[in-house]
Write a structure and sequence with these properties.
By secondary structure, the protein is α/β, with parallel strands linked by helices. The protein is 44% helix and 17% strand. It folds into two domains: 198 residues, Spore Coat Polysaccharide Biosynthesis Protein SpsA, Chain A, CATH 3.90.550; 80 residues, no CATH class.
């Protein structure tokens, strides 16, 4: 069942064993998708290992760690209408890429479709899945699933042209909740984001992760997105909520300091979302405040 509609893009940094396992799983897919890997300056032999074990994978070596912008680099080489992201510790289930392409074929106003995530080795649902499935965002009757306010890069298929038109991932955010800004810009361009329960991504969380650094980046990026795109009232509410709820430690303080230091840049680039998109994000606020899956920990 070769399917030529979708290219898979993976970014990686110093996770050679996890990446090789992911590429092995992707190579077994019946869709036989083209795969592009951006190696973000790994020093553990990742690039050489990929070249030896998976010579058909397009391997990009930018020479420095681009973070999420490594996906932007990969998409320059994508020639298919759809692009599927997964992390170096996650992989798509057989048939899910074809089913996602079918959904996008049928619904030309859908820009992204996010899959159900199963955490391995147990195959249990990630806690975020329930929130995606029960999303409170109002949706039109024709939308094939719940409407979302953002997406998860590790488990989403996007329209390649929509990604490019929205500018891809912002280099300033680098990594950590980087999807939120791109998702809002996709919505502002007229695209709907949806969740599809019949699509599946498997995630075997890597042990090679600095949770505290990732938390600080996530807090900083949330603050930047909030003030780049939200009206003053909602932006202030979200900022105060974060200040009250994040762990009170050096990492959180550093995140707020970095966000504040970039205020001149934020004000220069600030572009408030259209009212209809802001209404979708506002409908998510109660769920975000109550969420345990989205809390900043580590």
């Amino acid at each position: 069942m070769t399917d030529t509609r979708t290219t898979v893009v993976v970014i990686t940094h110093n996770r050679c064993p996890e990446l090789l396992h992911t590429l092995d799983r992707l190579a077994e897919l019946p869709e036989r998708p083209r795969v592009i890997v951006t190696d973000n300056a790994s020093t553990d032999g990742t690039a050489d290992a990929v070249a030896r074990r998976h010579p058909r994978v397009r391997l990009l070596r930018p020479g420095r760690n681009l973070g999420a912008v490594g996906r932007n680099l990969a998409i320059r080489h994508v020639r298919t209408p759809y692009v599927a992201f997964c992390d170096d510790d996650s992989w798509w289930a057989p048939g899910s890429l074809a089913a996602a392409a079918d959904l996008l074929d049928r619904h030309p106003a859908v820009g992204t479709v996010t899959a159900r995530i199963l955490v391995e080795p147990g195959g249990t649902e990630d806690p975020i899945v329930r929130e995606l499935r029960d999303s409170p965002v109002p949706r039109p009757d024709w939308l094939p699933g719940p409407a979302l306010g953002s997406f998860l890069a590790a488990a989403t298929v996007l329209r390649t042209d929509a990604f490019r038109a929205a500018g891809g991932f912002h280099p300033r955010l680098w990594l950590g909740g980087e999807e939120e800004l791109l998702a809002a810009d996709l919505a502002a361009n007229g695209w709907w984001l949806t969740y599809a329960d019949h699509l599946t991504v498997h995630h075997r969380p890597s042990r090679v992760r600095d949770a505290t650094v990732r938390r600080a980046q996530g807090i900083r990026n949330t603050l930047w997105f909030t003030w780049l795109r939200r009206p003053a009232g909602p932006a202030l509410r979200r900022t105060l909520h974060l200040a009250r709820t994040v762990p009170r430690d050096t990492a959180s303080l550093r995140a707020f300091a970095q966000a504040t230091a970039a205020l001149p840049w934020v004000l220069r680039e600030r572009r408030v979302l259209p009212p209809e998109v802001e209404a979708r994000l506002r409908s998510l606020e109660p769920a975000q405040r109550a969420s345990t899956a989205r809390s900043y920990t580590g």
